[in-house]
Design goal:
By secondary structure, the protein is α/β, with parallel strands linked by helices. The chain has three domains: 4-98, Alpha-Beta Plaits, CATH 3.30.70; 133-246, Elongation Factor Tu (Ef-tu), domain 3 (Beta Barrel), CATH 2.40.30; 259-402, Rossmann fold (3-Layer(aba) Sandwich). The chain contains nine helices and 16 strands. It has helices at 23-27, 76-80, 226-232, 269-284, 308-312, 336-342, 344-352, 366-380, 385-394, and strands at 7-12, 33-35, 40-42, 64-69, 96-98, 133-142, 152-158, 171-175, 189-192, 206-212, 239-246, 259-265, 293-299, 320-325, 356-362, 398-402. It has a six-stranded antiparallel β-sheet. A five-stranded parallel β-sheet has the order 14-13-12-15-16, with helices on both faces. Helix 6 (336-342) packs parallel to helix 8 and helix 7 packs across helix 8 (366-380). The radius of gyration is 22 Å and the shape is globular. It binds flavin-adenine dinucleotide and iron/sulfur cluster (2 copies).
Length: 403
């Protein structure tokens, strides 16, 4: 019989889903997380199960636990070699799964880790790296003006006869062909779904993505991103390996009177496009009763903004659109948070309504400014931000997804 002290719950990162964003390593107060050119891993000899790294992880890949003998805990060296989590064996001293660590997970920051109360139940992790779904490209075109930076494509993938149920706000993984510098298959990159749950074309088993071609790294040096360039170069008829779907909290409410406030930059518009289109289809069918849609959309210029043309065609009584351009010649720089403050009277009314849901998606750098604007707007509306902010968070009404 194994003594309980000899058994630990080992904290592991799923290499199939992890997007190598470094958030966990930057968060861990114990420096228990490390990485090489491929994998992020947790050192069991340092990790004290404090859970600080779990809520900020954008993919949930960090929320994996195994009951193992302390003496047989997976070493850092071993984990760095993994392409997937080890197969689960049985109880006695052998690897066994734990769905979630027993400790209470207190959300950190302001983002919700639960979906809106009325959201549809999402399907997740149906297709993994070892057994991906295969999609066919049925469309690939640019959705911002040629000749501008930030080339962005709208890509439509047909799932054929494969059942691949998705909801607005979820993402999929894409495995680019070929191998990385270590001769290993490329890890899957995540892309938000830009189409409604019933397909890019309603009733068809397809979905769309909004992909920016990465041509430089965050330091501004020339660097061709592996997966975004692969996706932007795809031709109609090409086949793509897809994993997922992922995400079970950044989901839209089904409540027929709910309001959506969508705040995005660049490709962060993908989930907002999906949610807007689903609402538009419900409205056309007479299945949507009321509820406001407000969009705050930022880009450097109008020409760089994805979907500028199609957005203009949506009627003003359906969606209230507010653009913010930061590099328009001869005009003052405007960011989404600036435009939110201009609309603070309307946002204040919405903040007071328990049916309002906020979604923020796009560049990591937008998060602080948007949260500061929301706090100012709450104060101007006579609301106590710590109370209203907490309510938004625990009721699944404030969702942040930045990358
Ligand atoms: C939940 C989630 C949803 C996402 N949705 C989308 C989406 O809808 N559309 C989309 O285009 N991308 C999206 N991304 C980002 C996407 O997963 C990839 O990270 C991005 O396409 C770069 O991958 P790559 O293989 O081309 O670059 P890699 O070969 O992985 O190189 C990445 C390097 O490129 C640099 N870089 C420059 N710009 C970016 C950028 N915008 N994102 C990431 N790295 C960048 C970084 O320095 C980084 O080191 C999402 C990410 C997450 C976590
Ligand atoms: S649980 Fe705590 S100690 Fe362990 S890796 Fe996460 S943040 Fe670090
Ligand atoms: S996806 Fe999660 S586990 Fe992977 S590096 Fe980012 S925070 Fe860490």
């Amino acid at each position: 019989m194994t003594a309980p002290a000899d058994v630990i719950q080992q904290h592991l990162i799923d290499p199939e889903i992890c997007i190598r964003c470094n958030t966990c390593e930057a968060t861990c107060p114990e420096s228990a997380i490390t990485h090489d050119s491929r994998n992020y891993v947790v050192d069991a000899s340092i990790c004290n199960l404090c859970m600080a790294c779990v809520p900020p992880c954008p993919t949930g890949s960090i929320d994996n636990w195994r009951t193992v003998l302390r003496a047989k805990a997976y070493s850092v060296k071993e984990q760095l070699q993994w392409d997937e989590l080890p197969v689960v064996l049985n109880e006695e001293g052998l690897t066994a799964p734990v769905e979630k660590h027993q400790a209470m997970i207190e959300p950190v920051g302001w983002g919700s880790i639960v979906p809106p109360a009325s959201a549809e139940q999402a399907h997740v992790h149906l297709f993994k790296v070892q057994s991906p779904a295969v999609a066919s490209v049925v469309g690939n075109f640019r959705v911002n003006d040629a000749g501008t930076d930030n080339e962005t494509h709208h890509i439509v993938l047909d799932m054929g006869t494969t059942r691949f149920p998705v909801l607005e706000g979820q993402s999929i993984g894409v495995i680019a062909p070929g191998v990385d510098a270590n001769a290993k298959v490329h890890y899957a990159r995540q892309y938000s779904i830009a189409s409604a749950r019933d397909g890019e074309r309603a009733g068809y088993n397809n979905l769309s993505l909004t992909v920016k071609r990465v041509k430089e790294n965050h330091q501004g040096e020339t660097f061709n991103g592996v997966c975004s360039n692969y996706l932007c170069d795809l031709k109609v008829g090409d086949q793509v390996q897809v994993t997922g779907p992922f995400g079970s909290s950044f989901l839209m409410p089904n409540h027929p009177h709910s309001h959506l406030v969508m705040i995005c930059t660049g490709t962060g518009s993908a989930p907002m496009r999906a949610m807007t289109e689903w609402r538009r289809r419900l409205r056309v069918k007479g299945q949507f009763e009321s509820g406001k849609l407000m969009l705050f959309f930022g880009a450097r210029t109008q020409e760089e903004l994805p979907y500028f043309g199609p957005l203009q065609k949506l009627s003003k009584d359906f969606i209230d659109i507010n653009f913010a351009f930061s590099r328009t010649k001869g005009q003052e720089k405007k960011y989404v948070q600036d435009v939110m403050l201009v609309r603070s009277a309307d946002l204040g009314v919405l903040l007071k309504d328990p049916l309002t849901h906020f979604y923020v998606c796009g560049l990591k750098s937008m998060e602080d400014g948007v949260m500061a604007a929301l706090q100012t707007i709450a104060q101007q509306a006579g609301l106590d931000w710590p109370i209203i902010g907490k309510a938004l968070q625990i009721e699944g009404r404030l969702h942040l997804e930045t990358y």
